[in-house]
Amino acid sequence: MKILETDRDPANEILAALTSEAHGPDPQVEQTVRGIIADVRARGDAALLELGRKFDSQDLTAIRAESSDFDAAYDSIEPELLAAIRKAKSNIEEFHRKQIHNSWLDARDGFTYGQIVRPIEKVGFYAPGGLAPYPSTVLMTAVPGIVAGVKTLVMCCPAQKDGKVNPAMLVAAKECGVSDVFAVGGAQAIAAMAFGTSTVPKVDKIVGPGNAYVTEAKRQLFGYVGIDQLAGPSEILVLADESANPVFLAADMLSQAEHAADSRCALVTTSRRIADETLKEIKRQTETAARRQFIDQSLGNYGVVVIARDISEAIDLANTFAPEHLELALADPWAVLGEIKNAGTIMLGHYTPVPLCDFAAGPNHTLPTNGTARFTSALSVDEFVKKSGLLSYSAKSLRDIAPTVLELAQAEGFDAHANTIRVRTEKHSA
Question: Average model confidence (pLDDT) for the chain?
Fold first, then answer.
């Protein structure tokens, strides 16, 4: 891991080590995805089966999960896992219900305006799950859609080696009320939902995280369908002062480093002691980590510890990074919360590690990465609804506002626009 100090190292070097801006797509990935999209658009289900057997499972025989698959899934998972799925769903649903925005109308003297909020009719979501099950991603992606009132919510997920969707994924989908589940992974899943096939319905919007091929497919198909965001590698930045526990800090850094070799992990602290002891703990905990290969690569390539002069400087660095996950391991995190401007999710205090958000506490774990927390947010109910402005004027109220509209229309050279006002106001001017 890089170790930098703000009173010693150049500011541009520190910022370069912290920031993780998105770059253009890999040309090879872009070309491969373009070919997959064209194939799925041309051949539909036949392409999905062929690509599924190539990339996921040679035993893939059916795309759509049937009722018998769901029954078998419930029979096979442990009761403890089912209870955990249900508890997590309850927490996530409670959190997202607070995000609901209702339609509103404001009736004035002679006119009414307002906003109508309606759910998107058909939404598809992608849930990674070929090599390992991620039922939490199913919950985090499906629950906001169900809360929003989406009528048709479908899920695509890679098949396991046996040609079936993982049982935990099926159970999580069923518990959420997902309409259909399809054993389709990768870029082909995004193409199938964007264009529709004989089996997979065409949707209006696609949400959910995925690998580079899934992300590139979403990028290429934006416009054919709506998308939520272009997900990048996992990120964590921990702000720590002298009150922090190095054992906790190391564990929290490793929790994100184990995601993949390109995860970004940063510790920004005002304490040299905390920095030194956390590095020792990282080394100790890594020795017994199950996913050590990912951790070593992630921390070796993208890990950084920055020793800041004071907490204000540390906060400035955090806001520049705009991390996916921000932990405030501080004696009084609430005192500085108002200064945090850019973060996907904010964890306050020494007993609030990121995995609470990852799995079960309530806030969504589909979060902005690559610095995009500067201008976007976590997956929410808002991603599943449309908002339409509403306006109704009487003849008198139209006459009252007519001079304003006419002046602006004429200034912009839109005479036909202006005429819509003139023909109405002149008619009633007598």
Answer: 94
